[in-house]
Each structure stands twice: as C-alpha cells, then as structure tokens.
Amino acid sequence: MTQLTKICIMNALKNDLSICERSHYTATQLLNSVNISRSTLYYHFNGGIEDALVYTVDHELIQPLTKEQMDWRQSTVFILGYVANHQMLTRNVYALAGNALSLAMVRQQLVNALVTGNQTNYQPAQLQLLCGALVAEVQFWLASNFQEDADEICARLTTFDQLLSKLD
Question: What is the pTM of this model?
Fold first, then answer.
C-alpha cells in the first residue's frame, strides 16, 4: 500500500504541475488533489513537495534509465522525449525545485544511472561532462520556451560526445 500511495501522490503532483505554469505550489494544494491528510504526505515524503518532486524525477527518468540500461544515445533520446512530452511539468519542476543543489543531484543521479548502461564505453568523468551538458541543454531549451527541436539538441549532444571521445 505504501508504494501505491506514493504513486498516487506523484500522479496528483504531476497532474497539477502539468496543467498550468506555477511559481508557487503548496502542500495544501497537493493534499486537495490527492485527497490525503498532511500526515500521510509527510509520512511518505519527509520533505514534502520537494521530496515528492525528487521521487517523481527518480521514478519517471532515473529508474527507467537504470532498468533498461540505456546507452548514452538512447538515454538522451529518452530524456529529451520525456521533456518534450511534459513541457509544462518540466517548467514547473525547474521553477519549484530548480536550485543549483537540486540540479547537481539530478546530474549525479543521471551519471549513476548511465554508468549501468555505459560501463565499457565511458569513463565516469566523461559521463559527468555529458550529463552536465544534457542538463544545461534542457535548461536552455526550457529558457527558450522549447523553440528548438529535440533532434537538434540530440545532434549537438552527439557532437559533444564525439569531441570528448577524441580527447582520450
């Protein structure tokens, strides 16, 4: 039941943050959407909404990358596809939890997930650089209001990957 409750909270959070742009979102708003008590929210997510956002990123992006052991190219396509299909959610996640520490944590989670599928192809330092580039590209994409096509970003990241491999 615990996992099901966490999924219900995550889905309500995703739904609320996918509807319209938000600069502020409260635990009360989430509680009303999922129809649970405040103690239930904090039982599952000690840090409230911030922890629920981290759980959502982990569940929606990090776990699939790890489970499927995607290589760098597959991972890039998967992440950019997710962001393209969840633009408002991405925008709100950045607005509500987009501080430098959160971004560094997401980048490290990406590196850890990608190590599983890329152990023979990359050194950890290369994955750190590639994931940093990917996070930066998503931020620029967001800042430009998703003006660019995901394929263009993917091509730029592929070029960066090729340039990195020449440095070895």
Answer: 0.88
